[in-house]
Amino acid sequence: MAESSGRALFLRFIALSILGVAVDALLYALLDAALSPFFARALSLLSGLIAMGILLPRIDMTAGGRLAVGDVGIIAILTVAALLNYGLFAALLAFSPSLQPLAAMAFATVMSLSFGCFGYLRLLRSSD
């Protein structure tokens, strides 16, 4: 696979992830006032994951007419990243109750996005 094709696929994956994070963050902001931080986070993460699943078929994730990384691989990466995100969020709030939930959310999101990007790059390179 050409380097520019791999870069374009990676940028599409980043765009998909950013859209999911936007849905997650907006819903969390709405739910945080009404629900506990843990439940609001679980619902917002699930909604972000569903939004990415809905958008996935609409984003061309092909290289030269073939899937570079299958939809199942992408969904697996996104699911593990969401679980990692929630786990970090919950651990941060459990071990440091004085920490603002928004700060825990931001840290967990950055870490899970990093995991997702490296995971996608790994799958992309192994498909060559």
Short synopsis of the structure:
The chain has 128 residues and is mainly α.
Summarize the topology.
Elements: H1 3-32, H2 37-55, E1 62-63, E2 66-67, H3 71-95, H4 101-126
Helix pairs in contact: 1-2, 1-4, 2-3, 3-4
Description of the molecule:
78% of the residues lie in helices and 3% in strands. The chain has helices at 3-32, 37-55, 71-95, 101-126; strands at residues 62-63, 66-67. A hairpin with a 2-residue loop joins strand 1 (62-63) and strand 2 (66-67). The chain starts with a helix and ends with a helix.
Major beta sheet summary? 2 strands, antiparallel
Helix-strand string? HHEEHH
Please report the number of helical segments. 4
Q: What structural class is derived from the secondary structure elements?
A: mainly alpha
- The percent range for helix content is over 70%
Total count of strands: 2
The coarse overall form would be elongated
Strand order of the largest sheet: 1-2
Measured distance between first and last alpha carbons: 6 Å
**What would you report as the Rg, rounded to the nearest angstrom?**
16 Å
Strand content: under 5%
Mean pLDDT: 82
Uncertain parts: none
